[in-house]
What we know:
- This protein is an alpha/beta fold.
- The protein has a single domain, classed as Peptidyl-tRNA hydrolase (Rossmann fold).
- Helix content is 37%, strand content 23%.
- Strands 2-3-4-1-5-7-6 form a 7-stranded mixed β-sheet, sandwiched between helices.
- A hairpin with a 2-residue loop joins strand 2 and strand 3.
- Helix 2 (70-81) crosses helix 3.
- The model has no long low-confidence stretch (mean pLDDT 94).
Amino acid sequence: MDTFVIAGLGNPGPKYQWTRHNAGFLFLDRLAHLENVSVTRNSFSAQTGEWNHNGKRLILIKPQTFMNLSGKSIMQALQFYKLPISQLIIVHDELDLPFGTVRLKQGGGHGGHNGLRSIMEQLGKGEFTRLRIGIGRPAHGDTVNYVLGNIPPDQMEHLSRILDGGLDMLEMLLDEGLPKAMSLFNNRNFLEG
């Protein structure tokens, strides 16, 4: 059975629960809810769970190290399951995508994202698959306060639909491979239903 690690990035604790930077945590929470799995076991300095999807074993991880140390937790999990970087999928918030979009990407830089930077420092490279959840950029000013700000109510009402779209993309990636999932989903905006 193929095993993958799916890590959603975020910061632990109620203060950060509904912030834009916690899109990865929110995605795994939604997946856990819809698939009736629990992501509450403590291992690898993370909350973890397991989801079996069409013959694949998916290790779900929410690092509890705070964003800028996410890589330590993910590295521990990959080493424990003896998995190559090609079987790692990172779910994270993306400033460079508008709210409502979710895109798959293979490899690339960290774009200033501290979670991705930490993972790349630990792994020595960035050749993992990313599921990027668009949060948009602030019109002006400080991106730190923006990403750590709560998702506004007018966006919250669309969040579950966007996360469900991301889950459809993840399932397509697992079942049919990255190129097909990218071609079918990467130009879609989930705000439009």
